[in-house]
Amino acid sequence: MFAVRFLKATIAMVTVLLQGRTHLNFKEFRIRGHLRFFNHILGILQLLEPQLFAQPSTVLHGIMEAYFPILPHSVIAKKPLESIITKFIQLLYQYSSHNPTQAQPLLEKHSTALNNLSQVYPDIQQLKSLLASITLTSSSKDQSGLGSAPNQAEPAMDEIPGVGGREETYSPTLAAMMGADASWDTEDVKSFAERLSQEEDSEGMAEALNELEEKSSSAVGIPQHFVAELSTQMTSCNKDCR
């Protein structure tokens, strides 16, 4: 009985402590020690497995939701975030294994973010397994709905989140992804993507990346729209671009 009360008290405390931190840009988030703090919290959550996964979804998802805003920063901070990303994916994987019915809505909600993450960290096997489970579940739902909605057209490949070319990146949810910075519309994203892909001067590229980092401080979803372009800069000879 004491163990159950302790577990609930710990989870409640963690949920509160994680709030109000991920709105910062990555540089400030790291300088203030929040990155290390979030990493330590994941270590505590791992110690609470598997009892952790028996908690109500509202409580458990409240904790995990705090980590998803960190994922887009991986495209510009792959190495510093590798440890925390790996631990978080392991937690999601264990959650999906122990309580798939409860975990699936959370995974489907963030399927695009997880798919983008797989482009930055293609070697995380547990991430591949999560994406496969999302795909299988979505396919099952589509097949079960065929009889009740015969006139519903099957979505084209480039309309499925995370599949197809760059066109799928500019989705109707762009404004929501941009957060507080409503000045960025579809054309702005396309224009900036061209700037990143065509910029040949190292100083010009560094200036563009700094501008992108500043923009993402008020709208953490922005970097997700430039995964392809930013990934190429991870091997740049210029340390400022990396």
From TrEMBL:
Residue ranges of every copy of the Integrator complex subunit 1 R3 domain listed in the record: 12-123
Source organism of this protein record: Patiria miniata (Bat star)
GO biological process: U2 snRNA 3'-end processing
Segments of this protein annotated with the region Disordered: 139-163
GO cellular component: integrator complex
Cited Pfam families: INT1_R3, INTS1_R4
Protein name per its UniProtKB record: Uncharacterized protein
Segments of skewed composition (Polar residues): 142-151
Domain Integrator complex subunit 1 R4: 194-242
